[in-house]
Amino acid sequence: MSAPDRHPEPVLSPADLAHFAGLLRQRRAELEGELARQGASLADVRAARSGADADDEHDPEGPTLSDEWSLRAGVHAELTVALAAIDAALARIDDGSYGTCLRRGEPIGRERLQARPAAELCIDCAREQS
Ligand SMILES: [Zn+2]
């Protein structure tokens, strides 16, 4: 007889949001550092490769450098995607939608957010999509 109108609990309290914002900013700083290192090594490969091209069209090092390039470019792309996901999560903290599944709007859950602060989907939707 008391409170038949259960107010939906706020998914995350302001303290929770501050906690996850802190996690995201920390992760963001790590990724930016990693990205800066990757950028530097990409420049190294680029310099090495253009040097090889200028010296000899049949440089036996060519394929190796290309492989190295692909590998590093792939890592670079992953870091960029991860960084964008973090920025999107920080934007959702600002606009109040953080912590709810982008697909169906249900709470993502603190445990999942603790493990993956940039998660956009609840665990069920994430499983369905993979
Ligand atoms: Zn969902």
**Number of structurally distinct domains:** 2
The helix/strand order is HHHH
Backbone CA Rg: 22 Å
pLDDT averaged over residues: 84
| Overall form | elongated
| Helix fraction by DSSP (H/I, runs of at least 4) | 55-70%
Q: Quaternary status of these chains?
A: single chain
SS-based class: mainly alpha
* Biggest sheet architecture: none
Strand % is: under 5%
| Distinct small-molecule ligands in the complex | zinc ion
Distance between the termini: 44 Å
Unreliable parts: none
Number of strands: 0
Structure, described:
The protein has four helices and no strands. The protein has two domains: 83 residues; 32 residues, no CATH class. Helix content is 68%, strand content 0%. With 130 residues, the chain is mainly α. The model has no long low-confidence stretch (mean pLDDT 84). One of its GO terms (molecular function) is zinc ion binding. InterPro entries: DnaK_N, Znf_DskA_TraR. It comes from Cryobacterium arcticum.
